Amino acid sequence: MSLEAVKEQLQQKFHSAVVSVDQLRPPEGLRTGFDVIDDFLLWKGFPKGDLSLLHGQPGTGATSLFISTMKEVHKQSKWAAWINSDWELLPSHLAKRGIDLKKLLVVKKPQEESQLFWILQELISSSLFEIVGCHLREGLLKVHQLQKLKKLARTHKVSLVLMSSAKQWLNNPLFSLIIECGRDFLTIRRALHRPTPFSFSGGMIHADFVFELTKSTRALLR
Amino acid sequence: MRTLCLNLQKVQEPSCAEVFLKFSPRVQFRYPQHVFLDIESTASLFGGEFSVLKQSIDLARQFSAQATGAIADHPAVAQVLSNYRPFELTKPKEDFQSLRHLPVAVLPELEGLYPWTKPRQIEHIVQFFQSLGFHTIDDIQHFQLTSFRERWGETGIALWRRLHGKDTQVISPLTPQDPFQGYGYFDDPVYHIPLLMQKIDPQMTYLFLRLEGLSRFAQKMEIILHCEYSQQKHSLIVEPVSPSRDVKLYRDLLLKKLDHLGLENPIREFEVSIFDVPEKIEQLDFFEPRDLTEDRWRRLISFAKQSGCEMGFLQMKPAHLPEDSFKIQTDWPKEFNSKDLIKIENNSIQVKSVYAKALAKSPRPSLLLKEPLQLSRLAIQKLQMLTRFPAERIESAWWNLLKKKEDSAQFENRDYYYALSSEGQMLWVYLDRLKKEYYLHGYFD
User: Fold this and answer.
1) What is the pLDDT of residues A42-54, one digit of tens each?
2) Closest Cβ–Cβ partner in B301, B316, B420 for A92
3) Residues of chain A contacting B443 with CB distance shorter than 8 Å
4) Given an 8 Å threshold on Cβ–Cβ distance, is B304 in contact with A67?
5) Cβ-defined contact of B444 to A57 (cutoff 8 Å)
6) Domains defined for chain B, CATH in brackets
7) Structure confidence at residue A81 (pLDDT)
8) Which residues from chain B sit within 8 angstroms of residue A209, using beta carbons?
9) I need a surface site. Which of A24, A69, B158, B270 has the fewest CB within 10 A?
10) Is residue A139, in this structure, part of any structural domain at all?
11) pTM, whole model, 2 decimals?
């Protein structure tokens, strides 16, 4: 009996329960460049068309993860966007990490807090960017605004990555992926169809950086 | 001379001829509604005469919905055809064949670039021929020049010459003189933005079509709205990040501006002015593909700029102080070269030294604080310094030492350290050697 005949028989027997291979394909994602994260997550990286949260204080590795994802995005000749907050992305660091500055649109810190939501909407709905990232202070966005951003991100297939140290977001179901960043460990708190929490060493993300620091210190001692 | 005549069907300004400059440099407007183009040498560039006719009518209909046109050897014949047989193309040197079956009533239209000096006399001629039973052009074509001259003098000569294609009319190259300004007046003052835009839109479309014809770009657009009461007026300036001819972009930017405008005092009249620049300013790198993506990000940046939000690309600068080492610009960032340029030619070596070479090797944090944050003594005690000695020293140029007394803010002398906070954050802190204070300057995030 041929494969087609078997498929036909199965379809007759189970009707709608039989789905095509395309429908079994996991949802799209953007690779982070770290195998341990990409292999664990269903999206093989940050979910496309959804919200992700990197929870942690600045200096604990969230931006490194974002930059690494941005690098993967640039490899595909696609664009990324970043909104500065009180902290600004430093291009000399980005250049060293292999980021194409021509494919990264940077927005200065909005003068008014209410502008952040508008900018995020514009960036997402322009359909220019694969990934949009920004730091989010506590109370800067309301839940209904996040819902709207999630809807927009889904429509335009953009991965919106928010970084925050505010505890209010940590258990928010609006985020499909929540990663808690500590310097020593990174813990995936929430991920679709995956057993969480899942922790891995922060050293994997900062490996290059630590090496660089050691190298520069040694050079000074010489 | 192959002539395209466009009949715009309503009174137009002479500047409307500029719209058609893309088809030929020889364009002439004739009051009230005709535009003549010499397409003898340019028709082939646009895919032939019919294609030029079609494209020019499409263009004309953007500001005059009923526009028609025709092509003939002689401007006068082209004008007649544009009115009585629109979209017709005569065969070269066979203008008469197209005219012969037309009624004599078309004679007042047989003008071309120069209108009849005595139009009443032409009407009289038409009536005269009709009363004698001559109803078509073909019927009067056989009369001799002397017959026309004896009966109607100079007018008769001019008419005979035009009927036989002997009247030479030359279209000169157009020299644009009119400013890019539009004006509109409301019979009933308007309170609503959609009604306002309904009137502004055609003016903008017309001005941008003129820009296209003249191969120029709009750097900015100013709209002055005059209110009904108290002589109040609103001035709105729309300026995208780069000169553009995208009328939709300007319209959207204007709409965004109008959103914030209260129209309690209704608008009575408006003025539109465009500040134009030559096309070459818009020209980017010749090899840079100009795709839709670029237009989209330019549009996005323009929107943001108008809303007081700055966005663009990071451009590295050769400066040692981290806060001065970059800027955000709306154009493509240039490659930052951190190596000396060495040129070897015959037996000579030329070294072009580059400033701030060490930048490429110096470790820099991913996040930099906009303003360094001064650390208290307690905060410093809680930090764990990763190196005993400073990892880097950055100081202003020695010649600034002289200025030190005059302006201490200009002078910097910093020792940078890496530190770990009690919460596990990797920090970039520095000791200000002049003030003896520690500052947090960035995060290795």
Assistant:
1) 889 999 999 999 9
2) B316
3) 58-59, 63, 87
4) no
5) no
6) 3-163 (no CATH), 181-303 (3.30.1490.100), 312-362 (no CATH), 365-443 (no CATH)
7) 94
8) 363, 444
9) A24
10) yes
11) 0.66
